[in-house]
Design a protein that fits this description.
Elements: H1 3-13, E1 15-22, H2 28-38, H3 61-68, H4 70-73, E2 76-81, E3 84-89, H5 99-104, E4 110-116, H6 123-135, E5 139-144, H7 153-164, E6 167-170, E7 172-175, E8 183-186, E9 191-194, E10 209-211, H8 216-221, H9 223-239, H10 245-249, E11 253-258, H11 267-277, E12 284-286, E13 289-291, E14 299-307, E15 316-324, E16 327-328, E17 332-335, E18 340-343, E19 348-351, E20 354-357, E21 360-361, E22 366-371, E23 380-382, E24 395-396, E25 400-406, H12 412-425, E26 429-432, E27 441-445, H13 449-462, E28 466-471, E29 475-480, E30 496-499, E31 505-509, H14 512-521, E32 526-528, E33 530-531
Parallel strand pairs: 1-3, 1-4, 4-5, 5-11, 6-11
Antiparallel strand pairs: 2-3, 7-8, 8-9, 9-10, 12-13, 14-15, 14-23, 15-22, 16-21, 17-18, 17-23, 19-20, 24-33, 25-27, 25-28, 26-27, 29-31, 29-32, 30-31
Helix pairs in contact: 12-13
Bound molecules: guanosine-5'-diphosphate.
């Protein structure tokens, strides 16, 4: 093995690239801040994202970018901890929630699911979880806000199984609840970590560690909590799922950690355990079979395109996930889909809160490449001439739909150009009704904010004013079925058959009831929430 390759192997093995998934307000930002704090990336846990972004006036796209501030540049955060190089991928929530949030998960090797202990599993967590499950990546659960009154921990564990259909293994177990929260029992080390408010989570806190059999424990916890703890642990050992690392790595079993990000309780043990159990970058599937990250040929794919990061230039940044080989600044690569050579001269990386020009990067890392409008979501780059293409990024189900027209018919050409560009960047999905004389476009988006982005960018970049007519649909299903013909489809009155941008048949629905009716009436077809492309 040459030294170049041994360096690559070392760098791959120490990479951990993951996304934190949660419903808004569960504590994703707070947990991210604390992880950065342990990595030494920030001394005092400051605000990772600008909170003003949560209630901005959404009429001005530039303004959106300005207000988003760090939120945009912190799409990926890299930091070091215990000789691991960690990449956290941000999955925007609140009004920022969009298809990008789902697509980001395609670039992650594992996921951390943050759950509010009082609320349990919420809608957005569920959606993001399903994408992780589809990819079969390891999912770790952090049940947050244990300093507050929450649901019974057994109930939370059961919810994982009932709502998400995943087995779980509590790595630690809470003692007491809310005001009486005393700490957690670490099942592997057979130790109690006592909860102390510390200095309000502003820096690292110390936790005392005591054995479960320790005689002083009864007086510390009280007899009742101590015996309750022993009972709970016995029940978990007897009736709970057992730990199996293979199952964790396949995404069938989630290790569960209880803690409190705000008060910094349980965060460091979680981080250590997570880094040990989760996977470094693994081989990825392509048109030429599985590609080993430790192969010297540099390859990667684009999973996100961010427009107008710098308002003074109308530039775009394409986010590339490196899948194999070493990246070097200035290297020439093949843009596989366009069959063109390009030079990667000013790539950027996202280190804690700054963007810096990156000299070298490795599998698992995300780099930002200047995009003069040549990239599409899902494009592959490859150093040698092997033309490796990673499987395309799927289309995820939009939840908001409208008909879009240009106000001025003479601007039709620019309108179509803008719509195509925004569709390739992944901001919108475009549908057409088959066999309809006048061409009418239906636009679908995952987050409603994208409509405002569409309107603003068409006006500012293409000089096109549009009219949007909102449609009542909320669900979309791609149709698969042997010998299926769209004409034979038996739909409900309130659903609509359209074609997506790849001319695949899809149906738009107003409610879930209609979906089940259509499924019943057309037994030979299957209705899918996600469309896998280029497969
Ligand atoms: P995000 O929307 O998931 O990024 O959530 P944030 O990290 O912004 O947290 C939402 C709110 O919950 C904020 O007011 C946090 O201070 C609070 N919070 C986060 N973690 C904890 C915790 O462990 N305990 C308590 N009591 N509050 C928390």
């Amino acid at each position: 093995m040459n030294t170049k390759n041994s360096n690559l192997i070392k760098e791959v093995d120490r990479r951990r690239t993951f996304a934190i998934i949660s419903h808004p307000d569960a504590g994703k930002t707070t947990l991210t801040e604390k992880l950065l704090l342990f990595g030494g990336a920030i001394r005092l846990a400051g605000s990772v994202k600008s909170r003003r972004a949560q209630n901005h006036a959404v009429s001005d796209w530039m303004e959106i970018e300005k207000q988003r501030g760090i939120s945009v540049t912190s799409s990926v955060l890299q930091f070091e901890y215990n000789n691991c190089c960690i990449n956290i991928l941000d999955t925007p929530g609140h009004q920022d929630f969009s298809e990008d949030t789902f697509r980001t998960l395609m670039a992650a090797d594992s996921a951390v699911m943050v759950i509010d202990c009082a609320k349990g599993i919420e809608a957005q967590t569920k959606k993001l979880f399903h994408v992780c499950k589809m990819r079969g990546i390891p999912i770790f659960t952090f049940i947050n806000k244990m300093d507050r009154m929450g649901k019974d921990p057994f109930e939370l564990i059961e919810e994982l199984e009932q709502v998400l259909d995943i087995k779980s293994y509590p790595m630690n177990w809470p003692i007491g609840n809310g005001r009486d929260f005393k700490g957690v029992y670490d099942r592997e080390k057979n130790l109690i970590n006592l909860f102390g408010e510390g200095n309000h989570g502003q820096s690292k806190t110390r936790t005392e560690k005591l054995n479960i059999e320790d005689s002083s424990l009864s007086s510390l916890l009280g007899d009742e909590l101590h015996s309750q703890l022993k009972e709970d642990i016995e029940l978990l050992d007897v009736a709970g799922d057992s730990f199996d690392l293979d199952e964790v790595l396949k995404g069938n079993l989630t290790p569960v950690f209880f803690g409190s990000a705000l008060t910094n309780f349980g965060v460091e043990p979680f981080l250590e355990s997570f880094l040990e159990l989760t996977t470094p970058p693994t081989p990825r599937d392509s048109n030429l079979g599985m590609v080993d990250p430790k192969k010297e040929n540099f390859t990667g794919f684009i999973f996100k395109i961010q427009a107008n990061m710098n308002p003074t230039h109308r530039d775009r940044i394409a986010f590339l996930r490196i899948c194999s080989g070493e990246f070097k600044k200035g290297m020439s690569v093949n843009h596989v889909q366009e069959n063109k050579k390009i030079r990667l001269s000013q790539p950027q990386q996202f280190l804690s809160q700054e963007r810096v020009v990156v000299e070298t990067a490795y599998p698992g890392d995300i780099i930002g490449i200047h995009d003069p409008g040549i990239f599409k979501i899902g494009d592959s780059l490859c150093e040698d001439n092997s033309k490796i293409q990673y499987h395309g990024i799927p289309l995820f189900a939009p939840e908001h739909f409208c008909k879009v027209f240009t106000k001025n018919a003479l601007k039709r050409k620019q309108f179509i150009k803008g719509i195509n560009q925004l569709s390739e960047e992944g901001t919108i999905q475009v549908y057409k009704q088959p066999n309809i004389g006048v061409e009418e476009l239906i636009i679908g988006v995952v987050g409603a904010l994208q409509f405002e982005v569409l309107e603003y960018r068409l006006k500012n970049e293409y000089g096109v004013d549009i009219i949007m007519e909102s449609l009542p649909y909320q669900y979309i299903r791609w149709i698969n079925g042997e010998g299926f013909s769209p004409d034979s489809l038996n739909l409900t009155m309130d659903s609509l058959l359209v074609e997506d941008q790849d001319l695949n048949p899809v149906v738009l629905f107003i409610n879930e009831w209609s979906i089940s009716r259509v499924a019943e009436r057309n037994e030979s077809i299957s209705l899918k929430e996600i469309s896998l492309r280029n497969k």
